[in-house]
UniProtKB/TrEMBL annotation:
SUBUNIT field: Homotetramer.
Pfam families the UniProt entry points to: NDK (PF00334)
Positions of ATP binding: 15, 63, 91, 97, 109, 119
Signal sequence, start to end: none
Example of a GO MF term: nucleoside diphosphate kinase activity
Protein name: Nucleoside diphosphate kinase
Catalytic reaction equation(s): a ribonucleoside 5'-diphosphate + ATP = a ribonucleoside 5'-triphosphate + ADP; a 2'-deoxyribonucleoside 5'-diphosphate + ATP = a 2'-deoxyribonucleoside 5'-triphosphate + ADP
Active-site residues, record numbering mapped to chain: 122
Function: Major role in the synthesis of nucleoside triphosphates other than ATP. The ATP gamma phosphate is transferred to the NDP beta phosphate via a ping-pong mechanism, using a phosphorylated active-site intermediate.
Length: 141
């Protein structure tokens, strides 16, 4: 176990495809087995404004409209996950963005994903992103 002073926080989403396919328990199990902790956990359906703010870096890209439609299409799980190097540790668990070309077997996307958009999970990609996203999803924390 690492000292609390080394704990890092990351924003994790189990996207609507993961909830719809019944993979919430499987994904949370992998997070916990890795040794990461759940600090916040909530099922919610998000509006367009939240989805747009979350993925602001992708505004203007070809996939942006369908990404917004997908993320708002049904309930998702939002979580704050913490632990030593939580940001890269969860990105490792998730695997690369494309579930076939980039994510390796053994990762969440590599094991359960097929189509890039429907890649099951989101994890913050840097400390700056994590701070911004945690403030967006859990403003009271
Ligand atoms: P995320 O932000 O969701 O954790 O995923 P990521 O960092 O691995 O990938 P990113 O480049 O940030 O893309 C955000 C999400 O947009 C969807 N996407 N679709 N070509 C496509 O159809 C395409 N490219 C990206 C995926 O859901 C991706 O995770
Ligand atoms: Mg990203």
């Amino acid at each position: 176990m690492s000292a609390d002073s080394q704990a890092e926080r990351t924003l994790v989403l189990i996207k609507p495809d993961g909830v719809q396919r019944g993979l919430v328990g499987e994904i949370l199990r992998r997070i916990e087995r890795k040794g990461l902790r759940l600090a916040r956990l909530e099922l919610r359906t998000v509006d367009d404004a939240t989805a747009r703010a979350h993925y602001a870096e992708h505004e203007g890209k070809g996939f942006f409209p369908s990404l917004l439609e997908f993320i708002t299409s049904g309930p998702l799980v939002a979580a704050v996950v913490e632990g030593d190097r939580a940001i890269p540790a969860f990105r490792q668990l998730a695997g690369g963005t494309d579930p076939v070309d980039k994510a390796t077997p053994g990762s969440i996307r590599g094991d359960f994903g097929l189509i890039t958009q429907f890649n099951l999970v989101h994890g913050s990609d840097s400390p700056e992103s994590a701070a911004r996203e945690i403030a967006l999803w859990f403003p009271e924390s």
